[in-house]
Write a structure and sequence with these properties.
With about 140 residues, this protein is mainly beta. The protein is built from one helix and 15 strands, in the order βαββββββββββββββ.
């Protein structure tokens, strides 16, 4: 995603939820959170959730999660995402995770610092420059 950023790589705080749940609290100290946000990585997880920091500097593949809802909170910079539509060229990545080569259709979202986007389980999504068949979804 670096091609769209004005200054810094996109920093996100990612929450992924599945059905079910634990009723125990989890505390993570600020140094662990800061490290995860600067380098990317796990912050906390349980049977029904995962919290991670992500540092994105290039476009990613199209993804679909069967049982996870992604919640992205944009901490810094900006990005373009496509959500919805139909995933093209999909293959299993295991454990209810799917990767694809593009999205046909879908909705564009411009995200910047402070924005939140919720991507429900089963919804195709990808960062800028994902492709639909042989046509680029994004144009400058």
């Amino acid at each position: 995603m670096k091609y769209l950023f004005r200054s810094l790589p996109l920093l996100t705080f990612v929450l992924a939820f599945a059905a079910g749940g634990s009723h125990e609290s989890t505390w993570v100290d600020h140094d662990t959170v800061a490290t995860a946000l600067s380098k990317g990585g796990a912050i906390a997880s349980g049977d029904d959730y995962r919290v991670a920091g992500a540092r994105r500097v290039k476009a990613g593949q199209v993804e679909v999660h069967d049982k996870e809802t992604d919640i992205f909170y944009i901490i810094d910079s900006e990005a373009e995402l496509v959500t919805g539509g139909t995933m093209v060229g999909w293959k299993s990545a295991g454990n209810g995770q799917w990767l694809g080569t593009g999205i046909q259709g879908g909705e564009r979202h411009h995200l910047s610092k402070g924005d939140v986007i919720v991507i429900p389980a089963g919804t195709p999504h990808c960062s800028r420059k994902c492709r639909a068949r042989s046509t680029t979804i994004w144009s400058k």
